[in-house]
Amino acid sequence: MNEYRLAVDLEVLEQLLKTDEAQRQQIVDLLARLRHQPFLTGEFREIDDTGRSNEVVLAGNTLVFFWSDHAVKTVRVTKLEFIEDDQT
Number of H helices and number of E strands within the chain? Predict the structure, then answer.
């Protein structure tokens, strides 16, 4: 399979730059994987405000939201959500 392109929303890049190095590397590794595995299914799906189904994949303590546009061979990363450990 040919490698897909990756499109990342600006807000996602801003969030990514604020993460520590280890967390950032886990996210970047997942993004690289998505280029080779655009049909990857997530832990769950979430419908965005346009009605599109987004796959949600866990990378470390970060949920990565994406959908694959197979017509133009592009994986679109739309959102990151950070999971906080509530255990004290």
Answer: 2, 5
